[in-house]
Amino acid sequence: xQEFTKFPTKTGRRSLSRSISQSSTDSYSSAASYTDSxxxxxxPREKQxxxxxxxxxxCVKNIKQAEFGRRExxxxxxxxxxxxxxxxxAQGEKPLAGAKIVGCTHITAQTAVLIESxxxxxxxxxxxxxxxxxxxxxxxxxxxxxxxxxFAWKGESEDDFWWCIDRCVNVDGxxxxxxxxxxxxxxxxxxxxxxxxxxxxxxxxxxxxTGVHRLYQLSKAGxxxxxxxxxxxxxxxxxxxxxxxxxxxxxxxLKRTTDVMFGGKQVIVxxxxxxxxxxxxxxxxxxxxxxxxxxxxxxxxxxxxxxxxVVKLNxxxxxxxxxxxxxxxxxxxxxxxxxRMKNSCIVCNMGHSNTEIDVASLxxxxxxxxxxxxxxxxxxxxxxxxxxxLAEGRLLNLSxxxxxxxxxxxxxxxxxxALIELYNAPEGRYKQDVYLLPxxxxxxxxxxxxxxxxxxLTELTDDQAKYLxxxxxxxxxxxxxx
Length: 482
Prior knowledge:
Helices cover about 40% and strands about 15% of the residues. By secondary structure, it is of the alpha/beta class. It has an eight-stranded mixed beta sheet with strand order 9-8-7-10-11-14-13-12. About 50% of the residues are buried. The model is unreliable at about 5-40 (pLDDT under 50).
């Protein structure tokens, strides 16, 4: 980074960063140039596009990318065999016939497999993105070509973000009766703007810490008038997506954006939940010196037993090379922290929301922002110090890289089953509250994925089942197990 700052002119720096940016996107991966292209400055909202069937009920970056996006989806399907298996098993019954699902999730090849599975099971879907940087434009185009009403593109503005959500909900002659959310923004929008629609929703499925927290707040205030399923705290989400997915994708995101070498680097991870545990395991394996901040004494004790030092952020802020937030909270890294960081410190977020790092405080006249490559900004202080900010404080792995398809299959299958359960539940089974997915379903999702590893479960004998007080076919864990 010190060598980088020696370039004599802004032109020199810009040409270097442009060449780096080009090289980092010139491949047909999920982060390919289609997704990152910025040569077309016309907003998708101003374009008139139709798919091959003549429909214009969508808004994406470029419908002509559909063929490329279809190949991405087909590749994802190969590693999502459990979800495809569920689709094939239930396709004849159409358990979601009549369901009108409005969704707000990351729009990637993997979520496209989920969306098309829901459609195959009988649902009508309208979709927007829960993150302004994570949409794969070619995948959104493929969904639009297939007839899904999708409103999303990479690099949306805040106004675009809410416009897309509103286009999904506010439709003449079509009213949603199910919500699939990631972060709670869609639920919040429907609750605030369309209260009459919200009251007629049959169920909400939420998969993020942030969104679940919002649901529990509504429930506690007595304002949640529909049943909701907390998928985030289901075992098949918490112990797999949050842990194993982040263990691999944290390094992918950091390497693609900064080319940093981790051996010997001092890294502080804020939060030692499942996401934090995954990040720390990966960083430690590459030789980084890892510190942890925690508010929860149980998680803090786990960090200590795993060999990490638990500190307050202020104690090490001047010496760390990388700061990663994974708390789901707000103002974890404040302007005061940012002012005290060393030159070239990398700051990023692995939690869902963009509130963990106080990015707004950096948009002041005395600080200079310099875009050096896609999703990488140098924020420059008057004395020349630079802080490297990734994805403007938004979710690193889905904004700057990709995530493992297989682990997303686990989460997507869980979401599909939760929607089927809520939609088909007899009246009275679920009240106006937040529920965890029944453990029987958790175990079913896990069992669907075991054939991928050629894994063979041991079966209890009748005597053993009686001794443990269990049914031979499960569930093997109580509902409170997490």
